[in-house]
Records
---
Amino acid sequence: MVAGPRGGTIGGAADGADWTGKGGPDDTRWVPPVHAAFTIRVLAVLLLVAAGGGCDNQNKLQSPATLKSPLPRESVWAVAPFLNESGVSTADGARVADQMAKVVEEADGLSCVAVNRTLAAMQSLRLPAVTSDQDAARLCAALGVDGLLIGTITLWDPYPPPKEGLAVQLYLREKGAAPVAQASGIFDSSNHAVLADLKAYAASRYQPGAPYGADIYQVEMNRYSEFAAHQILAQLLAKLGPPPER
């Protein structure tokens, strides 16, 4: 043990610490030993690794659940622009139809023609809207599709928490001029059951790292319409029967 200049010791403390005086007997500073500084650095690195792993887990990609058609073969459907009976002039039936066409296209066993093509066929038939079973049959034949969805917007509130109401009928050309299934729903995101379904739907359909994350489906009404269309299509397919083995 070597005595320090002011009564301390250098290199002789029992725990390996160094004490140096800086002006008086009470003015001392503890210098951590080398092994303690190394431990601190290791802990800092471990914390950074753990934080990085947490981000990776949070942004881990997952495949969305896919709806499956119960029809025995691949089918092509069309979607007519929705009628607006919500009382809100900003509700756009063509945009809602676009979202429905998107979820139909994503379903296993189904594909969907573009809404613009459906609009063009309606113009050639001089149909401003599909309002009867006969209109639906004519439009199906003109488009050469297997199925047609026509619908109505019954509720529209794009401000948080968003709300949307839809009523939809499905026509299948081989089944004649009457609808084979109908579905409707009010999707109010302040309802906890609806909100839980929305979170489950959005969890695998948002861009990781985006500002709103999965909450984008509560911010952009087009995305909320996509969710509502998905729920309605799920009801319609369930009424047609269980999906076949493919």
---
Amino acid sequence: MVKHVTLAGLNEQQAIFVRNIVDYGKNYKAAAIAAGYEGSWAYRLSSLPAVRQAIQDRLLWVMQTSDAPAARQVLRDIMDDPSASKPVRVECAKALLNRAGFVEPKAAPLAPNSLKAPSEMTGDELRGAMELLQKEIGERANAAKVIDADNAPQDDGLPSQIVDILG
């Protein structure tokens, strides 16, 4: 059960209505009845701007404090489970990295006139395309940094973002 998120601006019945929807997964009619309203009030309650905002805020809070950490743990458990298939473990690792902001690099966008098949290109166009691809490969290789024991970042217990902000 969710313990804390402000329901300011709502009366007690409206707050109970919101809690029943978000915390207990009730539909609007059942939540209205649980809050002491007639079931026919469900649509009217859900239409009130303050109630709609409270539902949205509480759902976001639950996602951030409860659901997202639980989902992350499920991914982590599957990724670390040696009995899980390797493709599934790889997908879990990719999902974790993606959610942390480590997304795979994307190829540079193609120029509009480079949509020809290689068999339709002239020699000059093929050489130009090869040069662009070699340049991109070189840039990706230069962007990668080898980390070993000599140049590994030192862990002082604080996330680097906090150090940068306070630093």
